[in-house]
């Protein structure tokens, strides 16, 4: 099992890259989230999942362990293969997928290309309990009435701020009673 690659980036495309590790070039399939997270670094570290099929050995790479964990959860659902899971992770961030599953938001999951109503419902049924166990920061973002924090974090990340920095900024200013707008404005002052 290849769990991680640490090496020099040789080629980079939105759906795959080649990483040289000790003279060997590994072709790795990636999501758009990972593509964006890698930036222009020449030396990269990827967390990987090796899928062995009868006709191929495919290596999937992720910028962080959370995305890899979400990938593993998604491919455990009947009807979702590695390619569909990568499309899901390219369309939504792992935290957005987890929030949709927790909130039983069929429409958000169904909005992903190739996912129908029945598949979206199956994803929610199969993964709802597992999402409670996934930790996205120092504390689980899905505990009671934390949707404002999640929405503010999502907005800050979409504005281009680093996820960990945004989480720390929100944690500094959050008392639990702020609106999404108040959280974003307060975090922007800290960032």
Overview of the structural elements:
The protein is an alpha+beta fold and 191 residues long. It has three domains: 4-62, Nucleic acid-binding proteins (OB fold (Dihydrolipoamide Acetyltransferase, E2P)); 65-133, 5' to 3' exonuclease, C-terminal subdomain (DNA polymerase, domain 1); 147-190, Helicase, Ruva Protein, domain 3 (Orthogonal Bundle). It is 49% helix and 20% strand. Strands 1-2-3-5-4 form a five-stranded mixed barrel. The longest helix has 17 residues, at 117-133. The protein is flat and about 55 Å long.
Order of helices and strands: EEEHEEHHHHHHHH
Number of continuous helical runs = 9
The strands making up the biggest β-sheet line up spatially as 1-2-3-5-4
CATH class of the largest domain: Mainly Alpha
Write the CATH architecture name of the largest domain: Orthogonal Bundle
Number of domains: 3
Beta-strand share of residues: 15-25%
Helix proportion range: 40-55%
The CATH topology of the largest domain comes to DNA polymerase, domain 1
Q: What's the pLDDT, averaged over the residues?
A: 87
- Summing up helix and strand content along with how strands pair, one would put the structural category as alpha+beta
Shape: flat
**Main beta sheet:** 5 strands, mixed, barrel
Radius of gyration over all CA atoms, rounded:
17 Å
| Number of E-state strands | 5
State the separation between the terminal residues, measured CA to CA: 39 Å
Poorly predicted ranges (pLDDT <50, ≥5 residues)? Answer: 137-145
């Amino acid at each position: 099992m290849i769990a991680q690659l640490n090496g020099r980036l040789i080629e980079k495309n939105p759906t795959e890259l080649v990483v040289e590790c000790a003279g060997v070039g590994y072709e790795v399939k990636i999501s758009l989230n990972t593509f964006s997270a890698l930036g222009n670094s020449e030396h990269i570290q990827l967390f990987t999942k090796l899928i062995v099929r009868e006709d191929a050995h495919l290596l999937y790479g992720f910028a962080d362990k959370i995305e890899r964990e979400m990938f593993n959860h998604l491919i455990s659902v009947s009807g979702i293969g590695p390619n569909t899971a990568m499309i899901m992770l390219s369309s939504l961030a792992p935290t957005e997928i987890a929030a949709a599953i927790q909130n039983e938001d069929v429409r958000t999951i169904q909005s992903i290309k190739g996912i129908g109503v029945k598949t979206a419902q199956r994803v929610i049924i199969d993964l709802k309990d597992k999402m409670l166990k996934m930790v996205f920061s120092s504390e689980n973002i899905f505990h009671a009435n934390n949707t404002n924090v999640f929405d503010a974090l999502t907005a800050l990340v979409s504005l281009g701020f680093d996820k960990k920095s945004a989480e720390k900024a929100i944690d500094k200013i959050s008392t639990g009673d702020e609106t999404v707008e108040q959280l974003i404005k307060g975090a922007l002052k800290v960032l």
